[in-house]
């Protein structure tokens, strides 16, 4: 009789646990749905930052069919392949690609002397134009694939501790297809 009395609470305890385990999926459905929504709408993990030297960036100048087309502005390398009618071989802005063309973008110039990262001597209006085009055209429309070595490294080759990757709050990969 002693064993029977002792087994009663254990069975009731196990039955309660079994009931809880059976009820758990029903109770957890709202939590699982919320977790699934969060995962579905979470931005993708950031791609690793790729460093481009000038010779590496020059390989993406739009001259080879099937090769991505890259353009750097303010040391940020954008994949402008989806705009190949503007940046591809023989296209009107092809001179800008395969290099950091910050000055050319600021001055709205395709002069080879302006196709450089150097912004020395630009006017306030040109600097404002550069920021506007950088944010409202390139960052809004094209994915960032990396950064120029000038953006990530100091002149002596040491890491730039102030480097912060750009974000793209308005970029949506679906817009590219």
Automatic annotation (TrEMBL):
<protein>
    <submittedName>
        <fullName>NENF protein</fullName>
    </submittedName>
</protein>
<dbReference type="Pfam" id="PF00173">
    <property type="entry name" value="Cyt-b5"/>
</dbReference>
<keyword id="KW-0408">Iron</keyword>
<feature type="transmembrane region" description="Helical">
    <location>
        <begin position="14"/>
        <end position="35"/>
    </location>
</feature>
<dbReference type="GO" id="GO:0016020">
    <property type="term" value="C:membrane"/>
</dbReference>
<keyword id="KW-0349">Heme</keyword>
<keyword id="KW-0479">Metal-binding</keyword>
<dbReference type="InterPro" id="IPR036400">
    <property type="entry name" value="Cyt_B5-like_heme/steroid_sf"/>
</dbReference>
<dbReference type="InterPro" id="IPR001199">
    <property type="entry name" value="Cyt_B5-like_heme/steroid-bd"/>
</dbReference>
<comment type="similarity">
    <text>Belongs to the cytochrome b5 family. MAPR subfamily.</text>
</comment>
<feature type="domain" description="Cytochrome b5 heme-binding">
    <location>
        <begin position="52"/>
        <end position="149"/>
    </location>
</feature>
<keyword id="KW-0256">Endoplasmic reticulum</keyword>
<keyword id="KW-0472">Membrane</keyword>
<keyword id="KW-1133">Transmembrane helix</keyword>
<keyword id="KW-0812">Transmembrane</keyword>
<dbReference type="InterPro" id="IPR050577">
    <property type="entry name" value="MAPR/NEUFC/NENF-like"/>
</dbReference>
<dbReference type="GO" id="GO:0005783">
    <property type="term" value="C:endoplasmic reticulum"/>
</dbReference>
<dbReference type="GO" id="GO:0046872">
    <property type="term" value="F:metal ion binding"/>
</dbReference>
């Amino acid at each position: 009789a002693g064993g029977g009395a002792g087994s009663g609470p254990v069975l009731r305890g196990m039955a309660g646990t079994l009931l809880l385990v059976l009820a758990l999926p029903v109770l957890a459905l709202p939590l699982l749905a919320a977790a699934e929504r969060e995962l579905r709408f979470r931005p993708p993990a950031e791609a690793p930052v790729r460093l481009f030297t000038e010779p590496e960036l020059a390989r993406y100048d739009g001259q080879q069919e099937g090769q991505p087309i890259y353009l750097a502005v303010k040391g940020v390398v954008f994949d402008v392949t989806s705009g190949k009618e503007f940046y591809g071989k023989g296209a009107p802005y092809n001179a800008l690609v395969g290099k950091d063309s910050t000055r050319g973008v600021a001055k709205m110039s395709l002069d080879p002397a302006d196709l450089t990262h150097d912004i020395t001597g630009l006017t306030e209006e040109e600097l404002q134009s550069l920021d506007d085009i950088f944010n409202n055209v390139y960052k809004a429309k094209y994915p960032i694939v990396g950064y120029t070595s000038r953006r990530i490294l100091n002149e002596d080759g040491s890491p730039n501790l102030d480097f912060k990757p750009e974000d793209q709050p308005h970029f949506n990969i679906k817009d590219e297809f």
